[in-house]
Amino acid sequence: MASESTMAHPFEDAPNHVTPTVIHDPILSKTDFRSVGTRPLRPDGLDKVTGRARYGADFNMPGQLVGLVLRSPHAHAKIKKIDTSKAEKLPGVKAVVTAADLPDHTGGDQSMYDILENCMARGVAKYDGHAVAAVAAVDAPTARKALKLIKVDYEVLPHVTDVDEAVKPNAPLVNPRMLTEGVEPKPKKASNIAKRTEFGHGDVDAGFKEADVIVTRSFRTEQTHQGYIEPHACVASVSPDGTGELWVCTQGHFVYRNHCAMLLGMDVSKLRVTSSEIGGGFGGKTHVWAEPVALALSRKANRPVKVTMTREEVFRASGPTSASSIDVKIGARKDGAIVAADATLRFTCGPYYGMWAELGSMTAFACYDLKNVRTVGYEVLVNRPKTAAYRAPSAPMAAFAVESVMDELAHKIGMNAVDFRIKNAAKQGTRASYGPVYGPIGIGATLEAAKKHPHMKAPLGKNQGRGMACGFWFNFGGQTCTDINVGPDGSVTLTVGTVDVGGSRASIALCVAEELGVPYEQVKCIVADTGTLGHNDMTDGSRGTFSSSMAGIFAARNAITVLRERAARMWEIPVEHVTWEDGHAKAVGEKYGNLAPLSLKEIAAAAGNTGGPIAGHSEIVADGAGVSFATHIADVEVDPETGRSKIVRYTVIQDAGKAVHPAYVEGQYQGGAAQGIGWALNEEYIYGKDGRLQNPGFLDYRIPVCSDLPMIDTQILEIPNPNHPYGVRGVGETSIVPPLAAIANAMSNAFGVRMTHVPMSPPRVLKALEAAKKA
Amino acid sequence: MAVLVSTAINGDTVEFACDPHESLLDVLRNRLGLSGAKEGCGTGDCGACSVQVDGRVVCACLMLGVEAEGRDIETVEGMSHGTELHPLQSKFLEHAALQCGVCTPGFLMAAKALLEHNPDPTEEEIRFGLAGNLCRCTGYDKIVRAVQDAAKVMRG
User: Fold this and answer.
1) Structural domain of residue A604, as residue ranges?
2) pLDDT by residue (tens digit) across A64-117?
3) Contacts with A168 (C-beta within 8 Å, 6 or more apart), sequence order
4) Are B93 and A46 inside 8 Å of each other by CB?
5) Among A449, A454, A446, A534, which residue's Cα sits nearest to residue A495?
6) Which of A411, A481, A482, B10 is the one with CA 20 to 30 A from A682?
7) Which residues in B lie closer than 8 A to residue A48 (C-beta atoms)?
């Protein structure tokens, strides 16, 4: 059958990963559920409301030291010399490390080398906050004193932090050796453009000639941060025998293990990583920063070392998302049919190679069925922190630009914005602008639901406007390894390797309970350390519940095979005459039909005499993550005197494939929308002329608070994903894609002012309103 | 030079020694093993370290440990009575009002203080009452509903 694409990992640092369309045999095997779709309490809930849950900073080891990092105050500077001698002599200091303590073990792997250099500057500090040295001491005051005793001799270099400035011909070079990839012939002169990518099909120029109306606009979005409430924290312990332990808040402890082991020159199997409870990630905890440094400090001090970032460090020196600059051109006939669409996208990557414009290029037009489409992306180097993933990375900015132009185009043609999108929406069989052919998808259904939603007809108040927009995200599957172990009492331990960022343990347990035919309460889901399971990819790409439930269901099927064999042995009948129904082994066939069914508990109790422990295992690459679409509706009220905006009503409509635990699906929809609202209205990185970040704190980088938001209405649609046994699609990311555009469209509908710069903060809105008044 | 401090935490008399510059949050987390209060910012902007001091919500990161002398301090660890959860704790679970859960202890403390002062708050009063606590996961919808529901239960 036709199928949506399966991407290889969209967020790992290695680019060049996009694989072609994979055709799958559908594996959807169930549409009628007993456990799936209910809303039980999560297994980790009690610990989280009583303060018992242990997050990154809540763990300690005996003899533990405090590690602190010294960071560059310059946006771009050559490190001529680092003198650590005074710090080393300070009583209580047990180790000082610089890049010299992290020799290069990356063996020519450029992406890993970039990570190494990002963890600790090697000769050049490339952004305000770049780590240059670190200390481990007996307590925090001593460590702070030691940092002050480290003398770094800098030679300040010219810097550039702005995306449009960085692509100008005479811009300061962030990396003097960067020759643009993806351009033929390969340039001989270095620039800040790391890579050019192009997607699309048809003939765009010919398409525009058929257009009755063409809208062309340029947009900008500023850099934002994931804003997880828990700062990065870890405890590292390396022994002289070369083995190590790492306790860390991360979205993927297996990937952290692999990266840290490589950067430290350790065997992967000798580093055991345990993921703590995670206090938010949103893509920002998919990347190592302080962890290799903590391990290097521990190795040198021969003591455990705890490193906890401050909030200021999180803002200055973790991985925010890109700033972007985007040009969009769309042409349509009077009847509303789009004839051509074109976009050029420039995304900042920080000082290192990235794939952020590429993801923007792939997602920009993914909602629509287009004959002629082209997107060109440029990865732009700037003296800002290395960009990391942020929830559907790059899609919100691309959607902001495209969905704004879609609204304007609909207005010019005289069509309703929803109807215009319905007319051009992608459907099953549509060739996506980024290549593959879609299977069953939900964009049309979310639009139809939006059209019918009472929100669309509700009256608006003074100074209010209503806007809508669509969003797309690929979703990801990836490597997944899961165990099921049946206890002697028949209770089931489900061991997964995907970090639970927002209730996935409950969801995965629901799927396994469903497959085994036992109550949810009988299945306990835990997240295992790296010594317990095979490699698992990160919890990113909305893959946690999708992939681990798939592996969990397969593991349950393997356990059921064992359970049937054991029942057959207990009954002394051939296994072919044993089936599994409703949590029981049942004997079938004329000769055996009168045998009373055996429950999982009964079989488990007898396991010692029928062959030993009962378990099921599964290791898969969870291909076939169903693509995800959403439509959002936003009502905005703008104060024309101050330019301050407030969201007065908000509705999210999204396809979940199958909502395993609807409360946590709603939570993902609401949380993504709230982040998008913050991005749309307030949040931005503000750099000074000196290249220093001016607002590295929650007071000046203002994320939405409770009084800023209304209730966020949700509508879950379920268009089953044929490539998951229960039809599940990832649900975590798409909800952040439409808000920027939906809110910009609402402002345009309220005041006739087209906002082209996000965030639409009060000064920008006021300026736009005043300009409109004059015009 | 460490200072000896005598205080009450969750109804128990507690004595500890701390440096004069140490925050109450550091004392709770590092000296007393009460790590329910979290440090999200260290500057009083996120509310993840909210505790009650003499019935008022306080960011423990903005108060010195030595200022705890003679006070009555409540932390999330003292919210439930034995195995019986506080209605706010139960309702946060029932309404799925937490995702990552790191802000939850702070929200519970702030909501508890809010309902003690105003047992029947409007939605707007709840939203402003909790505006000092940041949550990045939920969009606050389910938190507000949980507090509304808990208030109803507590009013009886």
Assistant:
1) 45-54+477-621
2) 999 999 999 999 999 999 999 999 999 999 999 999 999 999 999 999 999 999
3) none
4) yes
5) A534
6) A411
7) 98, 101, 104
